[in-house]
């Protein structure tokens, strides 16, 4: 079996590539710009190419066919239209990474299945993913293009810590605030439910769908079974750090309003995603991939990540602008209390 990963070195895709590279039944290829070459397993083949340069991609893919093509960096319809042109008739399965944020917010039921309505008025990213799904499924219905849609939720690895509210430079400034004994902002009252999935667990579900005839023309959400409140998520992080958690709860609507002028898209990431309770029903995935399950609990995954981050200074990216913004938001809300 021969698989091509478009991208292949991100949070989700790297775990899949590493898992598949250990399977002698698969020959693994990556098509990307080669920016993380040192982290790719030795037995993985690489095609160095910017896929947005379609003419170059056509040349480098000439005469090559794959059992599975996996797309991880397609965010807009024009990008999946390009993939359709490149791989029509050249693959037995095209797997597209969409997003669980594409589900209607809030949904009619907090229990999310693959049949939950797709609609997100708060986040353009999610609407683009929906449009990509619609294009691909139209090609499946009309032409038999062998698509499988994958909808991840919040997947993390050893280089990332899942958070609800952070700045443009990622998670680390929030971790730093915890270690310094400063309050950290949690959206809402922190009681909404959320799934977090370590990438190695995600890879089990994904690879189980590769080459799987039950997956053609279908959509699958892939998440772990562990469902936590945001208060529990932040408390677990603080416990792993060995510090006291000082939560400061702020309405997601307020965060959206005051974050916008600083370039923080909390309307999309919070109102369109993380501030809404979701519980994913993974029964469809487990019927297709019986081995899928959570093997790395969040308390374990956080410790894996924190240990890695402590040993890799390049992951410790500080964000003074976000730190100052947090202080201003908290000060403004505390001041408003005294004036009521």
Number of helices: 12
Low-confidence residue ranges? none
Indicate the percent of residues in helices: 40-55%
Instruction: Please give the largest β-sheet.
Output: 7 strands, parallel
Strand order of the largest sheet: 3-2-1-4-5-7-11
Strand content: 15-25%
The overall pLDDT, averaged over residues, is: 95
Radius of gyration: 21 Å
Tertiary shape: globular
User: What is the straight-line distance between the termini?
Assistant: 67 Å
In total, how many beta strands?
14
At CATH level 2, the architecture of the largest domain is: 3-Layer(aba) Sandwich
The CATH class assignment of the largest domain is Alpha Beta
**What is the number of independent domains?**
2
Helix/strand order, N-terminal first: EHEEHEHEEHEEHEEHEEHEHHEHHH
Structural class: alpha/beta
Say what the CATH topology of the largest domain is.
Rossmann fold
- Going by CATH, what is the homologous superfamily of the largest domain? NAD(P)-binding Rossmann-like Domain
Overview of this protein structure:
Helix content is 40%, strand content 17%. It is an alpha/beta fold and 340 residues long. It folds into two domains: 181 residues, 3-Layer(aba) Sandwich (Rossmann fold); 131 residues, UDP-galactose 4-epimerase, domain 1. It has a seven-stranded parallel sheet, with helices on both faces. Strand 4, helix 3 and strand 5 form a beta-alpha-beta unit. Helix 3 packs parallel to helix 4. The radius of gyration is 21 Å and the shape is globular. It starts with a strand and ends with a helix.
């Amino acid at each position: 079996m021969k698989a091509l990963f478009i991208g292949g070195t991100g949070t989700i895709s790297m775990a899949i590539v590493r898992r598949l590279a250990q399977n002698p039944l698969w020959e693994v290829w990556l098509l990307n710009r080669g920016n993380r070459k040192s982290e790719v397993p030795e037995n993985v083949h690489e095609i160095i190419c910017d896929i947005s340069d379609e003419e170059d991609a056509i040349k480098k893919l000439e005469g090559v066919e794959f059992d599975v093509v996996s797309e991880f960096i397609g965010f807009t319809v024009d990008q999946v239209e390009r993939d359709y042109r490149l791989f029509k008739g050249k693959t037995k399965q095209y797997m597209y990474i969409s997003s669980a944020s594409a589900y209607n917010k809030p949904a009619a039921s907090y229990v999310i299945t693959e049949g939950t309505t797709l609609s997100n008025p708060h986040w353009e990213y999610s609407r683009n993913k929906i449009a990509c799904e619609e294009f691909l499924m139209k090609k499946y219905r009309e032409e038999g293009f062998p698509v499988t849609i994958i909808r991840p939720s919040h997947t993390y690895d050893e280089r990332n810590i899942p958070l609800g509210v952070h700045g443009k430079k990622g998670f680390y400034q929030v971790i730093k605030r915890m270690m310094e004994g400063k309050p950290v902002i949690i959206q809402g009252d922190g009681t909404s439910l959320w799934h977090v999935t370590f990438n190695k667990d995600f890879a089990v579900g994904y690879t189980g769908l590769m080459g799987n005839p039950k997956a053609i023309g279908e959509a699958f959400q892939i998440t772990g079974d562990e469902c936590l409140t945001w208060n529990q998520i932040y408390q677990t992080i603080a416990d792993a750090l060995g510090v006291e958690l000082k939560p400061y709860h702020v309405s997601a609507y307020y965060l959206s309003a005051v974050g916008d002028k600083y370039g923080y898209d909390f309307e999309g990431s919070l109102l369109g995603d993380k501030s809404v309770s979701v519980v994913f029903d993974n029964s469809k995935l487990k019927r297709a991939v019986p081995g899928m399950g959570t093997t790395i609990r969040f308390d374990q995954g956080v410790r894996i990540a924190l240990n890695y981050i402590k040993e890799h200074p390049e992951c410790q990216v500080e964000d003074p602008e976000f730190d100052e913004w947090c202080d201003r938001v908290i000060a403004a809300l505390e001041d408003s209390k005294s004036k009521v």
